[in-house]
Design a protein that fits this description.
CATH class of the largest domain: Mainly Beta
Distance between the termini: 54 Å
Helix content: 10-25%
Number of strands: 14
Largest sheet: 6 strands, mixed, barrel
Structural class: alpha+beta
CATH architecture of the largest domain: Beta Complex
Order of helices and strands: EEHEEHEEEEHEEEEEEH
Number of helices: 4
Strand content: 35-45%
């Protein structure tokens, strides 16, 4: 079980001077989304990014856990999206906040959990169900080594087994934010039919009189 590192995405943007609701509305009419770059002890930079690019990146998944190289009129900025706002009615992006990523920056990010080798799990082959406790795991990672996903290999897991974070090999410098316990990522649970049969057997055994 391991993790794969996220690829750096590239996004073009342009600097903008106007601020406020009126300027933002005008940008949106032009097919642009207002945004800001901040952090790393530097002054904020207001920018605009193409609506199509913003929409595509946000709805592709993992938007808040990928480093992006923003090309602002030819000047490159290494950033990570920290927040975005959607229109409350139509769900299209109306603003994005980008955090500058400096040398040695560490970030807390939610990383998607991906399960493989279901066919090699004895429990699943016997009709068990994969009960996913955590679809994502929050980790602290260097900005240059943010995991793309955490891969969990289900080989050998049987009904009743639990898969904990300790079963995952994390890259150097990547640690779970929750550090005070070996938390559960998933369990293999018995199918309902098997549970019912087991419950009936236990009930029958309890009802039988003890032999004298």
């Amino acid at each position: 079980m391991d993790i794969s590192m996220a690829a750096i995405k590239v996004l073009k943007a342009q600097a903008r001077e106007g601020v406020g609701k009126g300027a933002a509305r005008e940008l949106r009419r032009q097919g642009l989304v207002p945004a800001v770059i901040y952090g790393d002890k530097k002054a904020p930079v207001t920018i605009a990014i193409p609506y199509k690019d913003a929409h595509k990146q946000i709805y592709a998944g993992g938007f808040l856990s990928h480093i992006i190289e923003l090309d602002v009129d030819g000047t490159k900025h290494s950033v990570i999206p920290r927040d975005y706002q959607l229109d409350p009615v139509k769900d299209f992006p109306i603003h994005v906040d980008f955090l500058r990523v400096g040398k040695g920056t560490k970030l807390n990010v939610q990383v998607h959990v991906h399960f493989i080798n279901e066919e090699a799990s004895p429990g699943l082959k016997r009709g068990g169900t994969l009960n996913v406790v955590r679809h994502t795991v929050e980790v602290s990672a260097p900005a240059s080594d943010i995991p793309e996903e955490i891969t969990v290999d289900l080989t050998g897991y049987d009904i009743g087994d639990s898969i904990h974070i300790s079963a995952v090999t994390l890259a150097k410098g990547v640690t779970p934010v929750i550090s005070d316990r070996d938390f559960t990522i998933a369990t293999i649970v018995a199918p309902s039919a098997l549970k019912s049969a087991g419950d009936e057997t236990e009930a029958e055994a309890a009802a039988e009189p003890e032999a004298e």
